Recover the amino acids of this structure.
């Protein structure tokens, strides 16, 4: 099992994309990774492209928009808006405010922009390029890390092909230049890293194995890391007998007098064994297919704290990524460390 402590070495790039199908915990892992970078003193920005900002809520902060907002010490977030990005491109970059007002804001043109495939993705990548390569020179703002909580798997991987595809058409002008520089950014393995998030369940494992060759082809290299979320492997690593149902049932038989409780325990144990089976299957298949991707098993925080809400799960996952600390595998006996409290004192004056 890959040690979480080595994540900074596995994913050293400044721009990091987190990919995964909906529901696998992609946002949680992207936010936890970003928070671990912030705790190392790196100024880190989480970039979302969602109907609603979900990251700020985890820190009890107001909802963020298209511009970056501080949510914790060394940590910011933003929620990309295609409309705002297009306005910035024409007014701030091309200095074509009149054309923007007369043409681009026309409702028929707006429909075309939103319907045309690849246009919004290209502006999204252009925004990332600006954040990573231009913002320091233009606005004096520099983020050491930009972590992208990408859209669901199929849509997310298209980000790596849209700019190179358009660049191959041989067009000229500002849009062609934009495509060219974005394509070069994506192709730079020193600048751009990718992490995959999945679950130890049948459908996510199948989709990961099916999706990985396409991602590797489109990206031109393998992802830097894979996270198996809600894993039970960290829990059983020191106690493999816990996977033996007969052993478990004998231990609990004297404590659970009710047959219904014993049946419920048996069902739960079988479900956990299935998770472990699919994780082992995924690791074996990746090895058989000669994929050399570091894999980190992220413990299911809900097993040690069934009442944990989203902020508590985030804290537990971040603790695991930062320290690989076994304490997150135990039922909490005391309040969470003050370093995770989300209040105004965490945000320094120069972040405001």
């Amino acid at each position: 099992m890959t040690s979480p402590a080595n994540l900074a070495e596995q994913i050293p790039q400044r721009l990091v994309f987190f990919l995964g199908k909906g529901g696998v915990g992609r946002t949680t892992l992207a936010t936890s990774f970003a928070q671990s970078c912030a705790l190392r003193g790196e100024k880190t920005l989480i970039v979302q492209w969602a109907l609603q900002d979900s990251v700020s809520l985890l820190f009890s902060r107001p909802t963020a928009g298209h511009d970056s907002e501080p949510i914790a010490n060394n940590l910011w977030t933003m929620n990309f808006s295609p409309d705002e990005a297009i306005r910035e491109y024409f007014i701030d970059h091309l200095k074509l405010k009149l054309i923007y007002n007369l043409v681009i804001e026309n409702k028929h043109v707006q429909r075309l922009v939103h319907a045309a495939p690849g246009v919004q993705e290209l502006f999204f990548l252009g925004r990332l390029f600006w954040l990573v390569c231009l913002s320091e020179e233009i606005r004096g703002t520099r983020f050491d890390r930009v972590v992208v909580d990408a859209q669901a798997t199929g849509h997310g991987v298209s980000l790596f092909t849209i700019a190179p595809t358009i660049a191959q058409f041989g067009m000229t002008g500002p849009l062609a230049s934009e495509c060219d520089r974005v394509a070069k950014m994506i192709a730079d393995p020193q600048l751009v890293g990718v992490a995959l998030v999945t679950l130890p369940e049948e459908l996510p494992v199948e989709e990961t194995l099916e999706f990985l060759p396409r991602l590797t082809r489109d990206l031109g290299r393998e992802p830097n890391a894979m996270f198996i979320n809600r894993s039970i492997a960290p829990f059983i690593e020191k106690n493999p007998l816990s996977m033996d149902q007969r052993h478990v049932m004998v231990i609990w038989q004297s404590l659970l007098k009710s047959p219904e409780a014993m049946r419920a325990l048996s069902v739960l144990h079988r479900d956990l064994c299935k998770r472990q089976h699919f994780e082992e299957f995924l690791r074996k298949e990746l090895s058989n297919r000669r994929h050399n991707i570091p894999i980190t098993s992220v413990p299911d925080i809900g097993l040690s704290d069934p009442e944990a809400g989203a902020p508590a799960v985030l804290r537990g996952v971040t603790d695991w990524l930062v320290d690989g600390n076994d304490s997150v595998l135990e039922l909490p006996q005391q309040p969470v460390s003050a370093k995770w409290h989300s209040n105004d004192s965490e945000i320094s004056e120069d972040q405001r």
Notes: DSSP finds 16 helices and eight strands in the chain. The longest helix spans residues 259-288. The CA atoms of residues 228 and 297 lie 5 Å apart. The beta strands are 15-19, 44-48, 69-72, 75-79, 145-149, 192-198, 225-231, 295-299.
